[in-house]
Design goal:
The structure is a single chain. The chain is 32% helix and 21% strand. By secondary structure, the chain is of the alpha/beta class. It folds into two domains: 298 residues, Metal-dependent hydrolases (TIM Barrel); 104 residues, no CATH class. The strands form five sheets. Strands 1, 2, 3, 4, 5, 18, 21, 22 and 23 form a nine-stranded mixed beta sheet that branches. The chain has a six-stranded parallel beta sheet with strand order 9-10-11-12-13-17. Strands 6-7-8 form a three-stranded parallel beta sheet. Helix 4 crosses helix 6, helix 7 packs parallel to helix 8 and helix 14 crosses helix 15. The two termini are 26 Å apart.
Length: 565
Amino acid sequence: MAEFDTIIRDGMIIDGTRMPRFRGDIGIKNGRIAKIGRLRPSDAARVIDATGKIVAPGFVDLHTHYDAQIFWDPYCSISSWHGVTSIVIGNCGFGFAPVHPDARERAMLTMTRVEAIPYASMKSGIPWDWVSFPEFLDSVDRHPKALNVLPYLPVSPLLTWVMGLEEAKSRPPTEKEEREICRLFEEAMDAGACGWSAQRLDPNGPACVQRDFDGTPMVSDLMSDDTCMALARVLARRNEGFMQMTLVSADSQHDFQQYEKLAEISGRPILYNVVQPRDSLPFVHRMLIEWLDSCRKRGLRVYGQAVTSDTGMAFTFENWNLFDDSAPWCEATTGTPEDRKRKLSEPSRRPALRDNMPRVITDQFDLIFVTEAHSPALKEFEGLTLREIGERTGKHPVDAMLDIAVSDDLRTEFYAPGPNQNMDFMKEMLDYPWLIPGVSDGGAHTKFFTGGQYPTEMLERLVREREMLSLEEAHWRLSALPALCAGFRDRGFLREGAPADVVVYDYDKLRVCPMEIAHDLPGGEWRRIRKAEGYHAIMVNGVVTIENDRETGAHPGRLLRHGAA
C-alpha cells in the first residue's frame, strides 16, 4: 500500500506563515498533510507535478452570503474557482435559521433586496428541511460541499424568532426575551456556530444602503447596544467564538467604542466591516487604520476586513437597490419592475432624485456609462458617460440616465466603476499588515458584480503586476490571518498534520477572466460570473476539486462545527 494518497511534487511552497518560500514536495494521506520535504514519487498513489508552480494554502473567505446557494451549488462558485477552500456564511446578521415554517416566504423576500438573491432561485433551490438553527446546520452537514463551511448565527432571524418581525423592528427585547435570545444563541454555539453577526446601519442615516424588500430597515439595524453586549457575554462565558459587525451610526466615536466594548467584554475577536480606499475620501481608510492599530496596541481583538478588489458594478433599474441610503431613491426603486418604471418616470419625483443622488454616484457622472441598450433607438448612447449623454440631450445626468432606462423598459445596463481606483490609496491600505482581504459577498448581488475573484485578483494585480506585496505576505493574508482570526483549527497553513487544503497555480499565467452572464441559477435566473485561469489544482481535505481550472465534481468539503470537522 502506498505511503501517501497524493504527492504534490517539486513545487515552490509558500506555507502561509510568512516564512520564505522553498522548493519541496507535500505528501498527503487521509485528507491531511503527512509529510513536507523531499519525497519519492513511487510512494504515492497519485502524483501532481507542481514543477514551476506555486503551492500554497487554500484561501479563507470570512464574508460570504452562500447560505442559499450552498444548497444548489456545492462549489459555491465563483469563490471555489478562485482558490477559496473555506468560507464563513451567515454574515451581516442575515440568514435562514431559525425560521418558523410560516415565516419562510418572508425570509426569502427579505434576501431579495438586502443581498439581491433572486426569489425564484431561493424558492426552487432551498430545501427548507429545518426550523431551528441546529437543524439548519444538520442540513448543511448532509448536503454535498466542495469547500469547508463555518457558520455564524445571524441575529436578524434570531430576534425575529423570539420577538416577531414587527416587534423586532419597533422595540428592544424585554428582559425575558433577551434571556431567550441568549439561550438560543447558546444552543446554536453548542451545535457548532462560530459566533454571531449583525449589520447595524442607522435607519435614518446616510449609510443605510441595505434594506428589507419593502424598503424598511433590517431587524439587525434596530438591534440595541444592550442586546449586543448580552451576546458578547455569552462568548465570554464560553471563551470561544467571534463576532462580525457592520456598524454605522451618526456618531463614529460611538461606533468605535461599541466595537471596543464588545471586544473587551467578550475577550473574543470582532471583525470590522469594511475598510476600503475611496478615491474622493482618502481620510476614511487612514482614520480606520489608525483606530484599528490603536485597538491592537491596547490588546483589543478588533480586526478590519478590507476590500482589495475592483468593486465596479453593472446594473439595470429592473432590480437595482444600492441607492437605498437615499430615501427618495429607496422609495422610487421599491416594488415590481412596473412600479419602478412608473415612479422613475414621474416628473414630480425628479427634483428629489436629482438632489438626493448618493455622493458615490454624483462624483462619477464622468465615469458611469451605458454598456448596453436594448432599444435600437437608444444604441447611440452605448459607451457614453452620463455627463456626455446629458450634454448631448440637454438634460441633467440623472434625468438622462432615467429617461433612457424608462424608454428601455428598465433594461438599459449601466456600469459604475468602483470608488477604489487610486492605486496609491490601495497601497496605503495594504501597507497595514493586519487587514484581512476579502469581503467577497459571495452569493449576493450577483446581477451587479462579482467579488469571489478577490484572491486571484490580488495575486494577479496587486502582487504580480504592481508588486505591492510579496507572495509570502499575500498568502499569509489570504489564508493564515483570516483563519486565525475566525477560529479555524489547523487551517490556513501548510504544515504536517493540517488538513490538506491546497492551491497549486502557475504564477505567470494566473488571471481573472472577463465578466460573463451565466443562466445557471434555479428558477431560470441568471448571474454574473468571472472564471479563473492558472489553477493547476485546488484541493480540499486532500481531494482535488478543481483541476486545470475545471470542477472535478468531487465534494470533500466539511461543515466546521467549532472551527473543525
